[in-house]
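hi! just following up on the protien thing from before. the input was this:
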Amino acid sequence: MQKTLNEIAKLVGGRVVGNGDTLITGASGIREAAEGEITFLANSKYSPLMDKTRAAAIVTSEDAQQTSKPIILTENPSLAFVKIISMFTPEEVGHPKGIDFTVVMGKNVSLGRDVAIGAYSVIGDNVTIADNTIIYAGCYIGNQTKIGSKTLIYSHVSIRERITIGNRVIIHSGAVIGSDGFGFETIKGTHHKIPQVGTVEIGDDVEIGANVTIDRARFDKTVIGRGTKIDNLVQIAHNVVIGENSLIVAQAGISGSTILGNNVILGGQAGLVGHIKIGDNAIVTAQSGVAKDVPADTMVSGYPARPYMTNQRVNASLQNLPKLFQELRELKKKIEALEAKLKDK
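and the predicted 3d structure came back as:
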């Protein structure tokens, strides 16, 4: 496929600077791009690569530095490039079609139109799967689970009993939805398991990464709100509630009964204790340990997590500790010398 730069600019609502008849044959990253391909620049720290890239053209923003290459100026280069990649990348092929003959189907299963289920998957009793949902090979769907339309479930996903999955959800391989919450009562040194009889509710347009674990609630439900995106290897404990359009980055861990608002961002390896609240639009930076509530529209970092600028000042002070220690040692020697002189007098 070939497109002129003018045609691409029309697709993304951008403005061409340079030769609009430049032919584009594909799209790639600014370092990887080959001759004839288009790339993008959304972060100014990569500006020096604009004249080094082999790409034929660049999608960037109005405030980008000048370059000899033709460019398309847009308000949001990243979003524009998503559309361009879709143009040059053929539709994904290889999704399962129909119901494989090896599928184990329970009683009273309700399947919508054009549902596809891959080989050796197990579908429990009284499961409902809506139109155009695709389930890859080797998945387990527990009894009485409901799955919405146009949902994509990759191989080796386990969805336990009585779980509700919304529409247009993507669940990547190895995820476990609805495993028992971690609850025990210790009596005379013995840990007695507390039954976990609640459920999990996943909203529309959620994406769940590989090997994510989302525990069922003890009594009520664990909730993942509409539009939230969860990276790989995240642990979400029982009775956690995550609002809409939040971002949970890899290896984050959320303890039981914690509530996250809308548009919250948890950085990688962030850890949250149980029974706290994280307000709307809050940001928890990577590797932070959060032990108390975080107000809305706040950024926190560190261990224990503090307001971001406070933590930056603490870190800056820590860098000066060797120098302060040396100065203190020298000051101590001076004081000892003065005391010795006074004693002699």
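Residues 104-308 form a domain with the UDP N-Acetylglucosamine Acyltransferase; domain 1 fold (CATH 2.160.10.10).
The first helix runs from residue 5 to 12.
cheers
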